[in-house]
Amino acid sequence: MQDYTGKAVLVTGAGGGIGRAAALAFAARGAAVACADIDAAAAGETAAQVEAAGGRALARAVDVRDESSNLALVEAAEAAFGRLDAAFLNAGILRRGGVMDTSPEDFDALIAVNLKGVYLGMRAVVPALRRAGGGAIVVTASSVALRADAALAGYSASKHGLIGLVQAAAGEMAPWGIRVNAICPGAVATGMVGIDTSPGSPLALLHPLGRVGQPSEIAELVTFIASDAAGFITGAALPIDGGLTALTSPRFRG
To answer: Are residues 187 and 206 in contact, defined by beta-carbon separation less than 8 angstroms?
Structure first.
């Protein structure tokens, strides 16, 4: 298990799902955690869980689409913990539909949250990471960032854009001792998915392992990638998808 004792980490989208699992995983490894979400009550619940387990936490409402909101979040984290060593920029939304049945409003929302929100998050956290002597940024992309889904056109576009952003940022920030990576989950059992993720469901059977992922499994990769143990990894887009993107034509099991 990685040791984050004495370090501080920021997590967006921390109000549930992967974000909450990651916040708890960072805290279990000794980090102080700034738990941020557009839902202030959900962020507070995650922070309360961290503190109930003996950790240090800050809860903050953030709208990742807004530059001032991102900057205020980082300012609050540094004020509370004295430093910032890593950021998990995880906040995102999902809208279903192909090109012809995704409204311009939904497409704009996907780009604003999933892509521009990460860009603004990076701009906010990098000065703090530099003040700490370097650090790590981890971004939640998706398996559809590696192989698009025709039924998720806008979502696929937003997540593909993240890979380019991560690669560019990794090159820019390497001289500052800041690593930037993306994780690319397949389907994960969270409320955002919005369809059946149970064993034996069509979505589960798309994955060669025959099931969807669990938030705690994604959190294990996040805490590793953000840790010193992953010190030679930057600019990567790492699948954690039960084999989904390994096959050009996924086969239903069973």
So the answer is: yes
Is residue 1 included in any domain, yes or no?
no
What are the pLDDT digits (tens) for 60-84? 999 999 999 999 999 999 999 999 9
Does residue 252 lie in a domain region? Answer: no
Paired sense of beta strands 57-61 and 135-140, if any: unpaired
Strands 86-89 and 237-240: unpaired
The domain that holds 31 is classified in CATH as: 3.40.50.720
Q: What is the CA angle 7-236-211, rounded to 5?
A: 90
Active-site residue identified among 85, 155, 180, 181: 155
DSSP letter, residue 58 = E
What's the total number of domains in the chain?
1
Indicate whether this model's pTM tops 0.90: yes
Tokens of 195: 């369809």
Asked if 47 and 22 count as a contact pair (C-beta separation under 8 A), the reply is no
Our answer to whether residue 155 is catalytic in this structure is yes
What residues make up the domain containing 14? 8-246
Residue 251 covered by a domain: no
